[in-house]
């Protein structure tokens, strides 16, 4: 068995519908591959439209009993789920590294991060407050209550296969909704392990359903077309998000989208250079660059450009590619060969247009890895400056003035995350307000947690996840007018 876990029962390979493990009815399964070895980890049930329909019906049937529980009752069950996730952190992290590739320390960090959303929303379940509106007529009273929107469909990505589920499911369940989750076909094992732990926590049948499958189009079509689904939440590419938004229009679903990014990190000449180098390194190469908020462009002011580049290169060349289970590895494999080819095509395109390779620039010797890479002489017309790289490649771009930096940062249709380093307090306010992003890190690149509203502007998405604002997308406001009060 390639997935050796302390508790082997966490390795589940069948769909999870109505608290039952559903095997392939027609014998259809698909392979989950370890990107570090290219070898098969498991065969997983390949769901299609029919299984997805059954999962939606299951969630709909469970909704009435789930939504009438008190917030405290739902919160207690979520709290138990959180505790089980943390109790099995090591196994969940190992499973994630095996199917996704990220280094084990990062995988452990993601499990804790994922669990934090369940803990947070277990507490928020008790805080879904309404309003009393001052009356406009003496014999009337006006009030607003919040109610769960209903069945939620969640489509989640492979780069954070646990956290992107819990950030959605935690809010949905706390609000009183039930959920159908379509995890990435690259990383279904993490999702199914979470389902197993939710069952042990006592979350009732049908409240959580997992439908893994290769036919994303058929599954997505069912989730968008089915009128029982009242909300769709998606994390992934902007192109797919736009398609899902169009499909959801027919049934006028509530939609929240966390889409692509093109994050700049701006290093001003008054920055603490050591901290800026460390922040850029962590932000760019975390998860081998496969995050939507990693630094896609590093903008460095001309006065410190040579010094930054020298220190940054020295730091990047210390990164070790390899299997994420190896404790020496600091840069694991990309998710698959297609991802490697895409990253390399961006590098080749940039070089053909005049960019220079400072270090890296090719596939690494270890299977599935790409060399941590730095490019200079990059301009905004190159694909690598316009497209989301999703790999360990850092384009470093020189700028002269604050105005130039803001213009470069904003010269994109995306607006998810951004970062800058400066010691000037006035500049902190000016730049924070001028750059067009949903999230801004000032002298810091580790900006995410369960308490902050995660999300972007422009073509990076709709809505916010996490924080006290994250539950709002799973609730409907109902206005109640009471008359004849004397």
Annotation keywords:
Aldehyde Dehydrogenase, Chain A, domain 1; six-stranded mixed sheet; 37% helix; 20 strands; seven-stranded mixed sheet; 486 residues; Aldehyde Dehydrogenase, Chain A, domain 2; 2 domains; alpha/beta
Task: Report the helical percentage.
Answer: 25-40%
Side-by-side strand order of the widest sheet: 14-15-16-13-12-17-18
Reported for the largest beta sheet, the result is: 7 strands, mixed
N-C termini distance:
73 Å
Total individual domains:
2
Radius of gyration (CA) equals: 23 Å
Average pLDDT level: 97
Named CATH topology of the largest domain: Aldehyde Dehydrogenase, Chain A, domain 1
CATH superfamily of the largest domain: Aldehyde Dehydrogenase, Chain A, domain 1
Q: Judging from the principal axes of the Cα atoms, what is the shape?
A: globular
Task: Tell me what portion of residues adopts beta-strand conformation.
Answer: 15-25%
What is the count of helical runs? 14
Pick out the low-confidence regions: none
| CATH class category name of the largest domain | Alpha Beta
Family: Belongs to the aldehyde dehydrogenase family.
Pfam family, one: Aldedh
Domain Aldehyde dehydrogenase: 21-480
InterPro entries: Ald_DH/histidinol_DH, Ald_DH_C, Ald_DH_CS_CYS, Ald_DH_CS_GLU, Ald_DH_N, Aldehyde_DH_dom, Aldehyde_DH_Superfamily, Succ_semiAld_DH
């Amino acid at each position: 068995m390639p997935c050796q876990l302390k508790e082997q029962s966490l390795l589940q390979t069948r769909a999870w519908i109505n608290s039952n493990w559903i095997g392939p009815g027609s014998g259809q399964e698909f392979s989950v591959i370890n990107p570090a070895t290219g070898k098969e980890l498991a065969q997983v049930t390949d769901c299609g439209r029919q299984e997805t329909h059954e999962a939606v019906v299951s969630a709909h049937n469970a909704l009435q009993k789930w939504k009438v529980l008190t917030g405290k009752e739902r919160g207690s069950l979520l709290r138990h789920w959180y505790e089980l996730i943390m109790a099995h952190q090591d196994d969940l992290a190992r499973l994630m590294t095996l199917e996704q590739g990220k280094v084990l320390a990062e995988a452990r960090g993601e499990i804790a991060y994922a669990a934090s959303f369940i803990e947070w929303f277990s507490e928020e379940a008790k805080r879904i407050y309404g309003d009393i509106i001052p009356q406009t007529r003496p014999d009337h009273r006006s009030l607003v209550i919040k109610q769960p929107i209903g069945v939620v469909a969640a489509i989640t990505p492979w780069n954070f296969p646990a956290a992107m589920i819990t950030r959605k499911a935690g809010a949905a369940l706390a609000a009183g909704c039930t959920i159908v989750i379509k995890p990435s076909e690259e990383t279904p094992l993490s999702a199914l392990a979470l389902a197993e732990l939710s069952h042990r926590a006592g979350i009732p049948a049908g409240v959580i359903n997992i439908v893994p499958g290769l036919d994303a189009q058929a599954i997505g079509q069912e989730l968008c077309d089915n009128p029982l689904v009242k909300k769709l939440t998606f994390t992934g590419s902007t192109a797919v998000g736009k398609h899902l938004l169009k499909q959801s229009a027919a049934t006028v679903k509530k939609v929240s989208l966390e889409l692509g990014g093109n994050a700049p990190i701006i290093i001003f000449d008054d920055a603490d250079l050591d901290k800026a180098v460390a922040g850029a390194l962590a932000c760019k190469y975390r998860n081998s660059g496969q995050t939507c908020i990693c630094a896609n462009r590093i903008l460095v002011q001309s006065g410190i450009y040579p010094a930054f580049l020298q220190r940054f290169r020295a730091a990047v060349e210390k990164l070790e590619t390899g299997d994420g289970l190896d404790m020496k590895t600091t840069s694991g494999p990309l998710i698959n060969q297609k991802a490697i080819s895409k990253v390399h095509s961006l590098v080749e395109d940039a070089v053909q247009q005049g960019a220079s390779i400072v270090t890296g620039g090719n596939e690494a010797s270890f299977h599935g890895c790409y060399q941590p890479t730095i490019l200079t002489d990059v301009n905004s017309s190159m694909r690598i400056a316009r497209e989301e790289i999703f790999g360990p490649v850092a384009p470093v771009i020189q700028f002269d003035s604050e105005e130039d930096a803001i213009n470069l940062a904003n010269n994109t249709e995306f607006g998810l995350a951004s970062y800058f380093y400066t010691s000037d307090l006035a500049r902190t306010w000016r730049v924070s307000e001028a750059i067009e992003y949903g999230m801004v890190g000032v002298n810091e690149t580790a900006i995410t947690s369960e308490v902050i509203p995660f999300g972007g502007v422009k073509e990076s998405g709709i809505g916010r996840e996490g924080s006290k604002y994250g539950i709002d997308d799973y609730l409907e406001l109902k206005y109640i007018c009471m008359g004849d009060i004397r």
